[in-house]
Write the structure tokens for this entry.
Amino acid sequence: MKKVIFISLFLLSSYVGISQNIEDASVEKSIFGIQIGVMGVWVHNELKISNQIALRSEAGISIVGMWTEGNDTLIGTGYSLPIVALEPRWYYNLSKRASQGKRIDGNSGNYIALRGSYYFYDNADSGTDRNLSSHPFTAVSWGIRRNIGNHFNYEVGVGAGLGFGNDTGREIGLTPYFNLKIGYRF
């Protein structure tokens, strides 16, 4: 009977030890960095909410394109707008990456996010008849973050979003969402 108890305890402790390493996979307590992408430049911070969830806050300058019709042609204009965003991210594959020996430092993994952002628009300098206003935007996205060396990283994400506001500032529109960023983590 003592042998059975000893063997059971040994096997149980081995199992607990293996599963504990996988359970220890967690997002980092806090990450601060800067990122540049196709659509602008941002400063961001991610705070740990739980082992798999981080809250990302971000401020930056985003490039936004506006298209207007004139004499049967489309005229494109780009604007740089200040933006603030808040984004809870669920890093769902950290345990799997850790068990396969892949890097999870700097929250390197796949994530699903719900992004809420606010674009600040000042139409005093626009020179157009458009009644554009500051507007919120929300999106659901899937993305990946991977590290390059110790401090550099890149992110790629796709999803769908809702923009609130248009020429009159009162319409809701469905829009694709994507991000492609390369960054430096401090």
User: Anything to note?
Assistant: The chain has one domain: 27-185. The two ends are 56 Å apart (CA to CA). DSSP finds two helices and eight strands in the chain. The longest strand covers residues 73-91.
